[in-house]
Amino acid sequence: MSAEALAVTPARANRRARLILGIFLAALVSWLALDLSLSDALPRQGGGSVLSLFLEGALSPATSYEAAEVPAGTPPLLSKVLGAVWTTLLFAIAGMSLAVVLGLIFGFLGATSWWRDEGSDAPLGRGLLQRLMPVLYAVVRVWIALMRSVHELLWAILFLVAFGLNNFSAVIAIAIPYGGTLAKVFSEMLDECPRESARSLRAIGAGPVQVFLWGLLPRAFADMSAYAFYRFECAVRSSAVLGFFGYPTIGYYLKLSAENLHYREVWTYLYALIALVLIVELWSSKLRERIVIR
Amino acid sequence: MSARVESLYKSRPRSRFVQASAWAFGVLTLLTWLSGVIQPASFLTARRLENLERFLTVDIVPAPLREGGVELGGLIAWFRGVMLDHGLDALFATLAISVLAIVLAMLLSWVFAPLAAATLSTRRPFDAAPSEDLFTWRALRLLTRALMVLLRSIPEYILAFLLLAILGPNHAWPAVLALALHNSGILGRLGAETIENLDPAPLRTLTALGAPRRSLLVSAVFPLALGRYLLYLFYRFETCVREATVLGMLGVVSLGYYIQQARGKMYYDEMLLLILLGAGIVIASDLLSAVARRYLRRAA
Amino acid sequence: MSAPTRGLEFRSVSVHYDGRAAVTELDLRVAPGEALALVGPSGCGKTTALSLCNAMVRPSQGAVLIDDEDLSQVSDSQLRSLRARMGFIPQDLGLVPNLRVSQNVLSGRLGKQGLLRSVAASLSVRNAEHERALAILDELGIGEKLFHRVDSLSGGERQRVAIARALYQEADYLIADEPLSALDPARARETITLLTEVARAKGLTLLLSMHDIELAREFVPRLVGLRAGRVLFDGPSGELTDEALSELYDLEEEDRVG
Question: What is the interface pTM, i.e. ipTM, of the complex?
Fold first, then answer.
C-alpha cells in the first residue's frame, strides 16, 4: 500500500463519504431489525446489583475463594488460576504449532509465485504438472476458505459431537481455522515478496521447491513470523474461550465463578487472562522489532 | 581450516533476544506436547472411531435421506423448513449485530484514536522537536491506551457472557456491545497508528498558522487518516461477522443460538447446515469487504 | 554436416514481447573461454540477449544452442543441468538479503544438487560445502563475512557475494547483466577487473552487458554493439572505431567532444 494509493482525491473523498453514509444507513436498518431499545442497554432490573458486584470485583479481585465453604483438598485459588493460565497457554501453543504446519503447507500450495512467473520461463517446465497447477491451486484456495470461515468454537462443537470431550479435539479446533487464516495470509505474503532472488536461482537451474525454500520463503519470512506471533495472541484468547465448552482453560473457571456470582473471582481470572495476553503481546512486539528489517 | 568456519560461526552477528525466543518457543512447544495434557496418540480409540463413523454416516446426513432413499423433494423440503423456521432470520440477525457493532466500534475508536496518538495527543501537535510534555497529556494518552489494551485483551465471547449477566437476555445488546467494545480497542489502536504515520509536514504548516486543535482534527487529520482507517474497518468487519455467529451460543438470537439448540436436540444434520450457513456468511462478508476496499482504492 | 561446435551460438534469434521486438535476428558465436561484452544504450536488448543464454527468455524465432544443443529442444531436466552450467549475476544481484552470506553462496549449487542434498548441506556448518564457500570468499577478500547477513553488507561486498555464488556453482559460463551500473567509477573499475580476472583464472566464458564503453574497451577483448535489438558491430575492442561508437549511441558530433 503506497501512500499515493490512498491519497485524498476529490473522487475518493466522494466515495468515502458515500461509503460512510451507507454504513450508517446499514446500522440504522440493523437497529430497527434487531428491535433494540436504548433502555435495554442499561442494567436490567436486578442487573444493577450484578453490575455493582462486577465493578467491586474489578477493584478487589479475589485472592482466595469467595465461597464460605470449600470442599476439603481443593487447591488454593491462586494455584488454580495459575493452572488455568498454564493450560490456556498449553492449548494455544499446541493449536498454533499445528496451525503453523498447516499454514505452511497450504500457504505454499496456495501461493502462485513458485509456479507462475509472468515474463519469464515456466518454472515447472513444460510437463503435465505446470498445466495441472491452476486446478490444484483453485482446489486449495477453496479448501483454505472452508478451513478459516468456520469459527474455532464451531469446529469445537463439531468435534465435541464427533469425538466427545477430549483435549486433542480442542487443539485441532484451534489448529484448523488458524491454519486456514495463516495459509491465506502466508500465501499472499509469498506472492507479494520480491521475485528477483527466485528468478536468479531458477536461472542457475534450481528446482521449484528449492526456489521456494531459498528464494521466496526467506524473503517473506519476517512478515510471516510477525503475523504468526499476532495470531498466537489471538490463539491465547480463543483457547481461554474454549473453556466455556468444558475444556480446563481460563474460560471454564471464569464461567463457574460467574454462575456462582463470585465476581471477585471472575476478575482474578480476567486479570490473569489480560496479563497473559499482554505478556505475549509485548514479547511478540519486541520480536517483531528485531526481525522485521526495512 | 575447519576450525575457522566454526569460529566464524560462533562469532556470527545475531540477536540474543531472537535466539532466546526461538529456543523458548521450541522448549515450550516440546513441553506442551510432552505434558500429557494433550494425547494425540491415544486419541483415535475404537470407541471414538465408532462415534465418528456414526457421526459421519448417520448423524449429519439430512433427515430425509437417512431412510436410504435419495429423494430430492424431501431434501428440498427439509432445507426450506430449516431456512424458513429460523435459518434466514438468524442469518439476518447475525449480519445486523455485526453491522451495528462495527459502527459503534468505529464511533468509539474515533474518540480513542486521537487521544492515543502520540503526535496529536500532546501539547504541541505534530511538533518537529517533541517538547517536554505536560503531565496531563501524558496521563490522558496512557489512560486511553490502557483502556484500549483492556478492551482488546478480553475476548468478545467472555465480554458478551459478562454483559449478558448484567443486561439480561432476550435482546441483542450483549452481543452488539461485546463486539463493539472489543473492536473499538483494536480500531482505536490502528487509528492511532494511522494518525502517527501521517506525513507531518502539511499538518505542521497548519499548526504554525495557528489552527486550533479542533479544526486541525476535523478538517486535516480526520480526512487524511480516513482512507487507511476505512481499510482497517472493513478488515475488522469480516471478523465481526465471524464472532457474531458464535456469540449466539450464549443465548443471543444469532446463528450460534440455533446451532446450540440443534445440538441440544441432537439434530446434527440441522446443526451442520447452520454451521455451513455461518461459513457462507463469513465468506460473503469477506467478499463484501474486499469489494469495499477495492472501491476505496480505485483512483478515479 | 559440420563437426559439433563447442560454445554458445545464437542462430538468427528474435524475441517479441507483446508484438514489440526486443531482439531481432541476432547471430552470435561465443567460443569457450572467450570474454565478450554487449554494449549499447539502455533498452537495446542486452538483458534479453543474456536471458536467452539460460532460457529464462525463449526466442520467438531462431534458436539458442549450447554445445550444439538447442535450448528449446531439451527436456526439462536437461535444461536444469544446462542452466547449472551458466553462472548468472542479474543486475540487482539476485541475492537473498535476509539470509547469511553462507546460504547465498551455497545456493549457487542448487541446480547441481537434489533437494535433499541441498537441504542437508545448509543444515550444518561442519561440512565441505562451507569450507569451499569460505575458500572462495577468502579469494575475494570477504571470508570474514561468511556468516553475516547480506543486508548488513556494503554494496561492494554484496557484489562479491554474488560473484562468489557464481564461482561456487563451478559453472562454465559467467553471465553478468550490467554489473557496473550502480557503481562509482573507482568501484566499477575494481569490479570489472575482478570479473575478468576471475573468468580468466577459472577458464570461464564471460558474457557481460554494460554501457560504459571506455571500461569495456579497456578490459574486454571482444565487443558486440547492440542497437534497437540488432547487432551493429561485433569485433575485437581494439578495432572499434569512433564512427561505430557514435552510430551506436546516435550522438551528434559536437556532443561527443570533451
Answer: 0.88
